[in-house]
Design the sequence.
């Protein structure tokens, strides 16, 4: 894969994140899409919630997992290829799925029982045993069920909405960075309305 | 879920804790219900025992587990939704259930044998082996049995007592904080009487 | 459970320890029974051996386990209730039972082989593997067998000797603390005689 | 094995790396082949990508694994012998294969789930449990499947292209070090063309 | 068990060690038997080899295990009782048996493979994995086989030689400490002859 | 076993190492055989390669394992006895066999996959998981297969070549140390020729 075709793949990777973010109910609004590298990352799709959040509902977390899968899924749909570029996405979505199952009681198979500790890095202190081996296996199976279901849905979505995906990738070829209104317009998706509350807050800011 | 509907969910979350606390025999009396955020928490239901406690009976611990499940159960009953907001509740009730099984001899399946150490954070020192793997699995199963039974009962209770739950949530919309007499009155539940001993103590205090 | 009934339960808890100590061959003599709280403990039954001990026989260790179970068993026999108050008892008796099996060769199933290390806190250094997993499971099963057998015997004893148990609990209501002669007299149990050796020693002391 | 025959084996080891690098689509171009020892290494085949790389596609990673296997495979094909000289190759290719399976979502059997942490040395912090035991076993099986498939292909390739392999080994006998054009010419393989981009960059450099 | 009967048991415990040491081929000669407590130990049977030793044969190690079991076995044969007094003996003989199996290749089931590390305290560094779980289980089974066989033989020996055992215990009642010639004479066992070499050395010492 | 017969066993132990080293193709030449103790070791058979080595072939490693087994095998063949004196030999050969299987891809059952880390002491950092439990078991089985096969061959060799073994042991009785020409002559084995390269080097040295 030469340099040009790789940059081309990046455009689709970011477009995938963005489009899944626009079309998945419960996902945070897409604020910006860019293929200008930042530090380790090759591009960035910035999705932030409307307001400071204290908690997330199960469907919002599932939406986050789908958005994280969007980059990898776009590469698979368009190029039939999987790359190392999705590593951080996979780590993030795995952490969310494990927390849904092990900290937030969102898996019927595990129930309202804490089976992993709450630290973000997923590490346990030595000797800490939050769950027996069969329970650990059940956690793995539930995580896999959640992620597989999400990936299936995302691949289906991007295949069905290929025209919008191509439009976004093409726009990134010309502009490298799209702000929120541009991104939604290019994709042909209606931009989400602000909450009354937030609009008030936005107005109130100096 | 927009900001307003999220705050609405918080009201039911706290009302769920409070109502389960009022209606479960053995639970500590509810002292205050509030949806004014404090630090990390979005609201608080304050339940304190009548007097300094040295020990708890099995039914009192089960009541604590039910009260902890009350917030999550209210969200499920009213909105059919599970959120990350119950994380601390789940950690607390898991710790109680694990201690019932592993420290306090309250599971017939484990018997009067200590199989977890007593530290509150549930961590073991490295290499510490309080029980073999099959025993750890049995602990998990017993914890699950206790929590599932409690959750089933709480959901049944809140579904049956939906009117009182709505009344509490509505009152929190108007007042944000309810003290003990207000909370019991809004819910239409008789306030628990103080012990003679405690009344004497209360009278004795300056 | 109000304060008064809880204190009532403590009286039976301590009476249970004391009565099992008086009626179990091989148990150390009961020196004092008290329900005056000391530090973390709600009451205390003081049983000390007649003389400095270098070693214990298997039946003496089993007697220690039974005495430790006496408090919990009394609460179950009288109130049909299990409380967190037995936590320290359970830790102690588990430690004795595990040592009988894993350090002192007192289980036919394990034999004269050391399978746990000798530290009192039951902790191993990281990575230390004194026994394979099947052996660890066998240790658990043997510990359970010893403790279950002891608990069965203790509950039978206290049910049969309920009159003496009530007498001790009643006396603690009036006196809060019973010394050795009082406790044995209230329970209607003959006080153990001192060894000739020990008597000599007692006489010899200034 | 005497010194001379061992040096002879090294020539084939390096020639194997080089030839697999030249003939495997997706492999980085071979820049230099040398049997002059450097530090611990007996020889070196330098393969660098055309440009700075941010990510790798699955087929490029598989090519890396094949190139790493090329040295060991040449020794097996030519001398029917396995030596300790491939240790570093085996560590590298194992790390790539484990990352494909556990970090980059490139195994259907594991899916887009992170099951190993991302540190290069493959070590976990104590107590860290990124996956249950059955999942760890599945990772092992997938790693084995990837490596076995690659080794089968590489042995087939070197057996089929034995003439080119002999030519490279013979050239290393005369010259000890071959630069990129020499290596490709000796092997009779067409040298890869530079990207337009890279050529521009190359021209632009002072 | 009163003080006098306990001291009586100690006499048999030490006599058991001593008599097994005298009657087991390959055991080190018994130098002294004493029931005067030293530090933690209640008594001591001192058995030292004839000369500085560099290595031990399998039958000599088995003899050490039997001598270690002699104290516990004497208590079982004479009093049908097991006490905590054998803890140090059990730890020592377990360490020898584990080393025979895991370090010295003396178990056919494990073979000439090192499966435990050589440190005397039997501890491994964290994460150290000298053997898989099935191998650890096999080690346990072999250790058990060695120790059970030795204990069977020792109990048989002491039952058969009860008269000599009684004689030693009786002599310790009168003298508390027996030196080598006294101990062998009391037991009616012929004292082992010194090696010619050692005699020479003994003569040579100032 | 008295002192003299033990020293006699040492002579055969060292003779076993030496004779296996002389008669096993791929083994390093035997430079010296001595029964003069050095530090912890009772004797020494010095085998060094002809030249500095960068890598070893599989048959050379198997030869090292056989030479390490030679001492223990000689004691078994001659005295039908196993002693602790082979501990260091067993540790060394186990380390080689584990590395063949887990680091150098020399077991078909494991393949060209690194499943143990490369540190000489065989220790892993805490939490490090280079392989799942079934793979660890497979490593153990492969190690056992390699070592058992080697031991079988070595015992057969020493039984067949008993005359040479006796000759070496007898020579060590008279001389305590044999240099390379003496050892080969006593054993009646032709001394290996130096490489032309090495001879040149030897000549070149001042």
Sequence:
């Amino acid at each position: 894969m030469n340099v040009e075709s790789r940059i081309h793949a990046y455009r689709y990777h970011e477009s995938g994140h963005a489009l899944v973010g626009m079309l998945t109910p419960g996902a945070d609004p897409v604020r910006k899409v860019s293929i200008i590298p930042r530090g380790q990352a090759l591009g960035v799709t910035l999705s932030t919630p409307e307001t400071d959040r204290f908690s997330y509902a199960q469907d919002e977390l599932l939406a986050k997992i789908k958005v994280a899968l969007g980059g990898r899924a776009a590469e698979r749909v368009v190029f039939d290829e999987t790359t190392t570029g999705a590593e951080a996405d996979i780590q993030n979505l795995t952490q969310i799925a494990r927390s849904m199952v092990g900290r937030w009681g969102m898996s019927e198979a595990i129930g309202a029982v804490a089976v992993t500790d709450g630290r973000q890095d997923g590490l346990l202190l030595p000797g800490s045993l939050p769950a027996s081996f069969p329970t650990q296996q059940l956690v793995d199976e539930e995580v896999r069920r959640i992620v597989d279901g999400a990936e299936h849905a995302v691949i289906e979505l991007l295949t069905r909405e290929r025209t919008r995906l191509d439009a976004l990738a093409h726009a990134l070829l010309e502009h490298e960075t799209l702000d929120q209104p541009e991104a939604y317009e290019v994709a042909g998706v209606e931009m989400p309305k602000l909450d009354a509350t937030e609009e008030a807050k936005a107005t109130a800011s100096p």
Observations:
- The beta strands of chain C are 30-34, 44-47, 177-179.
- The radius of gyration of chain C is 18 Å.
